[in-house]
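hi support,

uploading two proteins for the ticket. first:
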Amino acid sequence: MKTKLLTFIVLLCAVLILTTAFCACENKNDSDEDNGNETTASATAESTTEATEESTEAAINGYKVTVVNQDNAPIADVYVQMCVGETCMLPMPTDANGVIIFEYDENSYTVKATDYSGTYVTEQAEYTFADGSKELVIKMKPAN
């Protein structure tokens, strides 16, 4: 139990450090836009949250992952990670609706989901999007 807690704290610290560094870069890009330079907006936790509030049609522009329990009820705060081969992006938590939207380039992604509270586990190690689909539902079961 202590090992899981320590792992979670270390991961949380890493996420905070990376988020802080990422936000500093985002602010630099915002000032470039004010100067008339075009920049490419990166996916941030804030833009991801805003995207989850948009319609399902808007979700087609990104990859939408929904995490539910065995009763199809959404599970919040499950960390979802998108990977291409051995390269994985930073895991991001699901919102209150069990949804996370990643605004990544089109690719063949594998998806991993982890509930750091230890309440739920996935039924398989990783998931893939169906051919041509940008939406995926991951069903988790109780950890017992």
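and the second one:
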Amino acid sequence: MNPKKRTKGTPPREIVRKALTFHYPERIPRDLWLLPWASERYPEAVKEVQRRFPSDFVGAPNVYLPSKRVRGQMYRKGTYIDEWGCQFVNLQDGVRGEVRRADGRPFPKAIVRAFDKRFRDERLAGGQAALRNPAS
């Protein structure tokens, strides 16, 4: 949807400018990033949301040449290698897979384990804090 076509209210560019300069726009700027999964499964609902809440941003043109590293399709089941050489394994269409290799090297399991442990610890700590202080 082209934000320039709107005729009523504050123009999108002004809403974004006010937000970036802390001048209290009439509403927060909005944009909707969707995975193909949503558009493929709920096309009418996606169209309605985009019609009712058009983006306040426009995209910049791609100025890069296609990368020779890219293999596969980003949002399709299977393996995808991006411009940086990172390998993603995707188990279903419409979403982006998990990183399995970074720059041609296996993604270190120690990083994954540390992240999983930290996430688990933070979730547990947050739950315990909520039990101690029900008002939070």
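thanks. also noticed: The CA atoms of residues 12 and 87 lie 37 Å apart.
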